[in-house]
Amino acid sequence: MAERKSVLLRLDPAVHDALTRWANDELRSTNAQIEFLLRRALAEAGRLPTGAAAPPKRGRPRKDDGESRDG
């Protein structure tokens, strides 16, 4: 996986609070919510690069115990 870029983002405190509440409602971190919104805006504008990596999977990774769940 490609290294992720760090960006310093200055936000109005009220906007940050609103983003944090929205992120909590969708079980995301504030950072993940901002990336989700940026990706959606880029896609809607037709500007999401085709080479952009898929967003990370949400939630805890599945436990792989090496056994089939079917039996």
Tell me the total number of β-strands: 0
Query: What's the gyration radius in Å?
Result: 16 Å
Helix content: 25-40%
The biggest beta sheet is recorded as: none
Q: N- to C-terminal separation?
A: 33 Å
What order do the SSEs take from the amino end to the carboxyl end, as H and E?
HH
Question: For the residues shown, what is the average pLDDT?
Answer: 87
Pairing-aware structural class of the strands and helices? Answer: mainly alpha
Strand content: under 5%
Structure, explained:
- The chain has helices at about 15-25, 30-45.
- It has about 70 residues and is mostly helical.
- The protein has a domain at about 15-45.
- Helix 1 crosses helix 2 (about 30-45).
- The termini are far apart.
- This is Toxin-antitoxin system HicB family antitoxin.
- It comes from Saccharothrix saharensis.
Give a quick set of tags describing it.
71 residues; mainly alpha; 2 helices; globular
Topology (SSEs and partners):
Blueprint (H helix, E strand, L loop, with lengths): L12 H13 L4 H15 L27
Helix pairs in contact: 1-2
Put the structure in a nutshell:
Residues 46-71 are annotated as: Disordered. This protein is mostly helical and 71 residues long.
